[in-house]
Each structure stands twice: as C-alpha cells, then as structure tokens.
Amino acid sequence: MLSRVAERVYWVSRYIERVENSARMILVHSNLMYDLPKKIDISWYRLIELVSAEDLFDELYGTKTEKNVMAMLISDARNPASLLSSLRSARENIRTTRDILPKETWNMINQLHLLLASRESDLSSRAKRNDLMEEVIRSCQAITGMFAGTLSQNETFSFLMLGRNLERADMTSRLLDEGGFFLGQQKHLEQVQAHENVLWANVLRSVSGYLMYRQHVQTQINGEDVVRFLLNDRQFPRSVTQCLQTIEQVVQQLPDNDVVKQQVASLRVYLQDWRNFEAGSEELHGYLDRLQKHLMSLNNAVYQAWFLHKLAAA
C-alpha cells in the first residue's frame, strides 16, 4: 500500500473514533449535570481542558459559558478537533480512498456531515443536543461496523484498526483523568464522596462499559476499580490494555514494523507497572499523563515506520 494512502486510511478511523468519543464525552458530561446535586461544582470548561484546547478557546471565545464550550467542541470550523472539523477531515480522507473502502461509507459519512451541519440550532437546548449526540454516536458505530463487516483483513483493515485503537486508548485515558481531576478539584470533598459512585458510573457509561464492568468486577462501583478496569481489563474493547493488544496484533501483520513494535513493548511494560493509585490523586494524574505521552510516542513511531520515511524516499 502506498504511504500516502495508508496514512489517509489511518486517519479515517482516528477521526471517526474521535467524533464518536467526543460525542460520548459531551453526552455524559450533560448527564452528570442532571445526576449530581447543584451544590457540586461542574464546569463545562473542563471539557476544553480535557482535549487540551485551552489556548484556542481563550483566543476564540474567552468567556467560559456552556454555549461557547459547545460551539467550540461541536460546530466551530476554526477548531480542528471539533466534531464538524473532524467529520470534514474523515470525509475528505474517505473521498480520496474510495477505491479501497466500502462505497457505502462515503454515503454514510456524507449523511452524518449533513446531519451535524444542519442541526447547529439544536446546540442551545440540552435535550436536543443530547439527542443529536446520540445520533452521531450511532452513525459512527454504523460506519465502524461497515468496515468490520465488509473489509478483508488486509493492510487497509490493519491501518484502520491501528488508528481506531490508538485514538480509543487516548480518549479512555483522558476520561479517567477527567474523573480523577473532578474529585481532586472539589472544595467540599465529603459531599462529592457521597456521590462518587454516580461520577464513576458516568465514566463507565461514556465508554459503554457499565454492563461489562458489573459482569467482570461484580462489586459496587468505586473509582479505583473503575480505573483498574478501564486500564487493565484484557477483554473489554475500550480498555487501554485491550486496545494495545489489538494494536500489537495488527502491527505484526504490517511490514517494516520494528520501531512500532518497540514502542508497543514499551507501552506494555508501562501498563504492567500499574499501582493501585487512589482515584483523584496526583499520582494517578501523573500516571495517566505519562500514558498519554507514551501513546503520542506510538503515533510518532507509526509515522516513522510507514508514512514519513517512505514519503521522503518517493
């Protein structure tokens, strides 16, 4: 497969996964507003911090209101990570790789793009916005299912799986960091601790992991068990460990994979070095921050192995 084509396929799945995960994040944050008492401080701006977009938000908006945060995350084309921008990028990458991807996905991504672009007026209503986010999630899952159900497991499929699972692992780590950060920043910690199970149940729901957690862990929901489950469970498809296992499997099928295999091995060792950090602790935040840096290094290794040096040689 040509390097530039492989890169586009890689980013097709990353962008679609990013759109789905961002919609999940927005939906769960809205639900948390309903589930927790009003006296507990929940900031919409925390979503901006979660995706590391503080500087751009301050430049474009400044005022940290719900309306501005939602516009920035969903519909602002000036934000390259907004849902609309990510969909446009996914759409362009699918357009330029239509000869190797199912033709149905081109129609599906166009329909999703039109849906989001035509519903900007719904963003001011939480109920309508939540309905829209649910539609976005279902549409992304339909595209992902089309890839899984119709593609041969060749190099195209491998690069799709590689991009999807790298993006997924990154968002899972960020959502765990969000839960811990929320606990650590509350002034009235005793009030939050009384509702801590609500917080962590919402974190699980953000990755559709509530049912699997209850089946696998079989204990009352608490932060430490949720963190351990979403980092280390070997069967749940959105845990970081399961994402890494999938990455490791597809990397084995690709040529010139030495540098990527080294980064995967380094990340595996890091995950095995897990300690039972207290939820909300600085130690957990530091661990998750370093995990995200490992994932960035893995992305860099992917570029080094399959995209950059082959472009230079072309």
What is the radius of gyration? 19 Å
Say how many strands there are: 0
User: Which term fits the overall shape?
Assistant: globular
Describe the sheet with the most strands.
none
Beta-strand fraction estimate: under 5%
Output the structural class. Answer: mainly alpha
- Helical proportion, percent range: over 70%
InterPro entries: ATP-dep_Glu-Cys_Ligase-2, DUF403
Protein name: DUF403 domain-containing protein
Organism: Thiomicrospira cyclica (strain DSM 14477 / JCM 11371 / ALM1)
Domain DUF403: 1-307
Secondary-structure blueprint:
Blueprint: H1 3-35, H2 45-50, H3 54-60, H4 66-75, H5 83-95, H6 103-118, H7 126-150, H8 155-185, H9 189-193, H10 196-206, H11 210-216, H12 223-232, H13 240-252, H14 258-272, H15 282-313
Question: What does this protein structure show overall?
Answer:
This is DUF403 domain-containing protein. It comes from Thiomicrospira cyclica (strain DSM 14477 / JCM 11371 / ALM1) (Thioalkalimicrobium cyclicum). Pfam families: Alpha-E. Helix 1 packs antiparallel against helix 7 and helix 1 (3-35) packs antiparallel against helix 15 (282-313). It is globular and about 55 Å long. The two termini are 13 Å apart. It has helices spanning 3-35, 45-50, 54-60, 66-75, 83-95, 103-118, 126-150, 155-185, 189-193, 196-206, 210-216, 223-232, 240-252, 258-272, 282-313. The protein is built from 15 helices and no strands. The longest helix is centred in the N-terminal third of the chain and has 33 residues, at 3-35. 75% of the residues lie in helices and 0% in strands.
